[in-house]
UniProtKB/TrEMBL annotation:
Substrate binds at residues 21-23, 36, 59-62, 118, 151. Its main location: cytoplasm. Keywords: ATP-binding, Cytoplasm, Glycolysis, Kinase, Nucleotide-binding, Transferase. CDD domains: Phosphoglycerate_kinase. Transmembrane segments: none annotated. Pfam families: PGK. SUPFAM superfamilies: Phosphoglycerate kinase. It catalyses: (2R)-3-phosphoglycerate + ATP = (2R)-3-phospho-glyceroyl phosphate + ADP. It comes from Rubrobacter marinus. (2R)-3-phosphoglycerate binds at residues 36, 118, 151. This is Phosphoglycerate kinase. GO terms for biological process: gluconeogenesis; glycolytic process.
Length: 395
């Protein structure tokens, strides 16, 4: 990676705004997977050791541009406090005179965590006024939020244009690893896609098919393909705007694109719902597909076993609920057991792998799902593109 990093900045005594991706799963006020927080610690520790005063900002979930207690950063602050071993102060805003005044009183040797950036409507619009307000909080900017680098938002792009900026250590590690392994993968290269951000991910399938030898599709997105094939999908999640594209992709991809042969269905996506396995094409009306079935897991496993490189983003089903977790578990175990170089990316995929205690069996855990997908496609990530290049001394 030829970008300036935090190591190139003279941070001593300075206030440094750090964009982190603390978009972690939260249940009943507790962070249920802290991978993204732990992975940001090296940058935070480096800044603290060099006498900087870090001010952290992140989004959490997808609130609609206004404060929403469900997405407040307090549970994240609590977990960060336990992990960092230095004081963590959490503020209830992310910009404005009150925040500025609070930062003027910042105690030495700790970090300040700002409130969810998506409580501000300007964040996702990359509004220059919000970026200006954020830039007023610090003297330097560091982006360590690889998981959000594919978003051109005020905290990832706008503010980077207004302050001296650099990449954080996690950002550097992610880009260096993904560059070395996925841009020139050892073949066969098998990509596995799942999850629920269907409209985000359907768009990348075409370019992924250009890079991978086989693409295994599970999660919610397979139902758009089934519907495009003319199958009944009951109440499963479907992206109707993509049906034509799905049809075209199915025609063009041939055997490269592998869909489930059976699915787990239930009447509702909830704990205790009665689940059963049905062949694809036999999803009853009033039921929804919430996981891939056992025959699919076996079929996917044989592709994974033959692979030399595996890239996985998105759980195969609603793994948070026991009855719909077997597909994700089966695929996770197959990837863990394979001899392939394996990269797992995405907040929920990583949560699924760590829930099973399989992190150490993967070659690399990427903190970004959508971001790693776009990177593998060969796209430039806006949050990276905006950072200044590193010019070696003597050049
Ligand atoms: N068939 C399905 N129907 C509805 N939701 C699903 C289905 N399969 C997986 N999901 C959900 O997808 C979510 C993760 O999706 P996504 O955010 O795209 O993955 P990642 O964070 O790994 O990139 C999980 O919360 C999971 O419950
Ligand atoms: O969780 C994230 O992406 P991922 O689910 O693709 O890994 C990032 O924090 C980006 O979140 P967003 O997709 O709401 O912009």
């Amino acid at each position: 990676m030829n970008k300036k990093t935090v190591k190139d900045l003279d941070v001593g005594g300075k206030r440094v705004l750090v964009r982190v991706d603390f978009n972690v799963p939260v249940k009943d006020g507790e962070v249920t997977d802290d991978t993204r927080i732990r992975r940001a610690l090296p940058t935070l520790r480096d800044l603290l050791e060099r006498g900087a005063r870090p001010v952290l900002i992140s989004h959490l979930g997808r609130p609609k541009g206004a404060p929403d207690p469900k997405y407040a950063m307090d549970p994240v602050a609590k977990r960060l406090r336990e992990l960092l071993g230095a004081p963590v102060r959490k503020l209830d805003g992310a910009t404005g005179p009150e925040v500025e005044a609070a930062l003027d009183d910042a105690p030495e040797g700790g970090v300040t965590l700002l409130e969810n950036s998506r409580f501000y409507p300007g964040e996702t619009k990359n509004d220059p006024e919000l970026a200006e307000g954020l830039a007023a909080l610090a003297e330097l900017y560091v982006n360590d939020a690889f998981g959000a680098a594919h978003r051109a938002h005020a905290t990832t792009v706008g503010v980077a244009e207004k302050l001296p900026a650099a990449a954080g250590l996690l950002m550097q590690e992610e880009l260096d690893y993904l560059d070395s392994v996925l841009r020139t993968p050892e073949r066969p290269f098998v990509a596995i896609l799942g999850g629920a951000k269907v409209s985000d991910k359907l768009g990348v399938i075409e370019s992924l098919l250009g890079v991978a030898d086989t693409l295994l599709i599970g999660g919610a997105m397979c139902f758009t393909f089934f519907k495009a094939q003319g199958y009944g999908v009951g109440d499963s999640l479907v992206e109707d705007d993509y049906l034509e594209e799905a049809k075209r992709l199915l025609g063009e991809a041939g055997g490269k694109l592998v869909l489930p042969v059976d699915v787990v269905v239930a009447e509702a996506m909830e704990e205790g719902a009665e689940a059963r396995v049905v062949p694809v094409g036999e999803i009853p009306d009033g039921m929804m597909g919430l996981d891939v079935g056992p025959e699919t897991v076996e079929a996917f496993r044989s592709h994974i076993t033959d692979a030399s490189t595996v890239f996985w983003n998105g759980p195969m089903g609603v793994f948070e609920i026991e009855a719909f977790a077997k597909g994700t578990e089966g695929v996770a175990r197959a990837v863990a057991e394979s001899r392939a170089t394996s990269v797992v990316g995405g907040g929920d995929s990583v949560a699924a792998v760590s829930k099973l205690g399989l992190e150490d069996e993967m070659s690399f855990i990427s903190t970004g799902g959508g971001a790693s997908l776009e990177y593998v496609e060969g796209k430039e990530l806006p949050g990276v593109a905006v950072l200044p290049d590193r010019i070696d001394r003597g050049e």
